Amino acid sequence: MTLLLLEALGAGLLFVGIIWWTMFSGRPDGDPPAATEEKKDQTS
Questions:
Q1: What does the alpha-carbon distance between residue 25 and residue 33 come to, in Å, rounded to a whole number?
Q2: Model pTM score
Q3: What are the distances in angstroms from CA 9 to CA 14, 20, 32?
């Protein structure tokens, strides 16, 4: 029973670790500003 709980805990930690890694491994400065808003400002 203890082995089953440890295995479930390990799988959960691995799952959370993968989610955390993919959420915060993007661009260092975040997303760039939307290009569509810049084009709208220039055409007006």
A1: 18
A2: 0.55
A3: 9, 16, 37
